[in-house]
Write a structure and sequence with these properties.
This protein has 86 residues and is an all-alpha fold. It has helices at 2-61, 68-80. The longest helix is centred in the middle third of the chain and has 60 residues, at 2-61. The relative contact order is 0.05. Keywords: Membrane, Transmembrane, Transmembrane helix.
Length: 86
């Protein structure tokens, strides 16, 4: 009878270890996904900031001329529609 109890305890311990390992793997996957999402958001923010800086620089450079609006419009068209067909 004691042998059966020992085998049951060992099986329970193995099941608990497997569950803990699965939980750890799920947590690691979730953390990796969150990190990837944060990196993508940071990259998007950096790109937007760079585009805004470029627009501001172009406005400052061409503010003395009347072509600033056309340059700005062209830049906005390029940003909004970056496909080669444009």
């Amino acid at each position: 009878m004691s042998r059966a109890v020992i085998i049951i305890i060992i099986i329970i311990i193995i099941i608990i270890i497997i569950i803990i390992i699965i939980i750890i793997i799920i947590i690691i996957i979730i953390i990796i996904i969150i990190i990837i999402i944060i990196i993508i958001i940071i990259i998007i923010i950096i790109i937007v900031i760079i585009i805004i800086i470029i627009i501001i620089i172009i406005i400052i450079i061409s503010s003395s001329t009347s072509s600033s609006y056309s340059i700005l419009l062209l830049l906005l068209i390029i940003i909004i529609n970056p496909s080669p067909s444009s």
